[in-house]
Amino acid sequence: MTDDYDPHPELFDAADQTLSALRSPGGMAKWLLRFELTALRLLGHLPSLADCVECGRPVESGRRVHFSPLAGGVLCPACRAGKKQVLSLSPEVLRALIRFSEMRDESWRELTLERGTHGELRGVLNNYLVNLLGHRLIMPGYLMRLTP
């Protein structure tokens, strides 16, 4: 997701911190989720998670919301009409995406991810990355086995 020889010191620091954390037991899945969302934010690819990516209106987070990997984020019901490849996110997954992506908030460390929530979260991120990069990724099968 970066150009050759284009330095990204913050991304390097995030990768270094993640690799160091992976050496300790437990929490591997959460650290990987945090790194992926940090990388997306630092590189300007973080999806819109609070406001409709089409019209900019706030999206209700207390119920399932529409998420379009192609459009780059959540969609309000009015903008959802006619869109293809739209996913339905549970409120828990949307909240987790927001918490893992917040730059200065460390509350993601205490977040407990149920197996189903983690699976849905992994599926959404994998789908988003495939659309962003334009090809299937090798690691998702392995990452899906990393349960919280």
Describe the protein in words.
The protein has one domain (27-144). The chain is 46% helix and 7% strand. The chain is built from six helices and three strands, in the order ααββαβααα. The chain has a three-stranded antiparallel sheet with strand order 2-1-3. It is globular and about 45 Å long. The chain starts with 8 loop residues before the first helix and ends with a helix.
Précis, in short:
This protein is mainly α.
Low-pLDDT windows of residues: none
Strand content: 5-15%
Order of the strands making up the biggest sheet: 2-1-3
Number of strands: 3
Structural class: mainly alpha
Report the order of strands and helices. Answer: HHEEHEHHH
Q: List the domain count as a whole number.
A: 1
Please count the helical segments. Answer: 6
Secondary structure layout:
Elements: H1 9-22, H2 28-42, E1 65-68, E2 73-75, H3 77-80, E3 87-89, H4 91-101, H5 115-133, H6 140-144
Antiparallel strand pairs: 1-2, 1-3
Helix pairs in contact: 1-2, 4-5
Give a quick set of tags describing it.
148 residues, mainly alpha, three-stranded antiparallel beta sheet, 6 helices, globular
